[in-house]
Amino acid sequence: MKNFRTYKATAAACAMALAFGVTASTADAKTLRFTTQLPAKNFATQNVAKFGECIAAGSDIEIEIYDSAQLYRDKEVPQAVSSGAIDMGMTTTARFAGTIPAIEILNVPFVMGTRDDILAALAPGAKLRALLDEELTKTGARPIYWMDYGTVVFLSNSDKPIRKPEDVKGQKVRVFGKTLGDFVTALGGVPTLTSGSEQFLAFQRGTVDAGMTGIGSVKSRKLYEVIDIVTRTEHAKIEFIMLINDGVWNSLSEEEQTVVTECGLEAEADLRASIAAVEEDAVQDTLAQGREVIELTDAEREEWKAAAQPVIDAYLENSGELGQKVLDALEK
Question: What's this model's pTM, rounded to 2 decimal places?
């Protein structure tokens, strides 16, 4: 039987940490199944667990968490949630690139600006966020809250280290979205779309030479076992989105919807406040594992930015009117 976690509106459930197994539900309880490709110990999965505890404390809704891609891989989550095959799930914004090209703004290299710029642009109710939330809801997978997963870094090995843009040339690079793939192509590399849960094996088997990911995953997925170098380009923003099937959402009472919304806002704020510490912890852990972490100088970062210009042009061409609105909202 697959492992999952259940959160229930009892004092014990609210006080407990993560408990595995099925909890018998009361007659009027609602059980919602949730899927993620991330491991149980990943900081984002733990954030979901707290979100579930919050909901359980304020309602009769139970959340069953299926982690580590037990049910669906990352790329399968949007369809699974929108079709109702699963009640809830989380996936990266990149997985909506096919239906909402404008959402790829987060993966256009260096365009999101400083961390303060990003926080302002993605805050609940902000123009850019509102534009994208509206489009997401149209897919049948309604966003509850956005999940900060930090910034994108390059991973490489000592035989083919990535320090400068020209080092990407000729390398097979793991990516998790179209725009990131466009960046690799612009640098002369070969993008290889690979699910987060499969990237360890991709490195181990030599399917890819290098890769992109969030530095938090280097620790939680033990990628330091298959790579030697982390280059902190921080060229794009990784956001997961907590989604709920629109039909399931509409089946909830107004009071239940309020609880879910408020718990989502709380969970989102917790991640935003903690992500810098999470990334620094991952950096220190990577160093402790004997791996190299390259921090870019300002001059080196400008060199990477210049190499990314073709990707910005391609984004505007592919994302149409909504893409221009999103870019305008970001610039304001």
Answer: 0.85
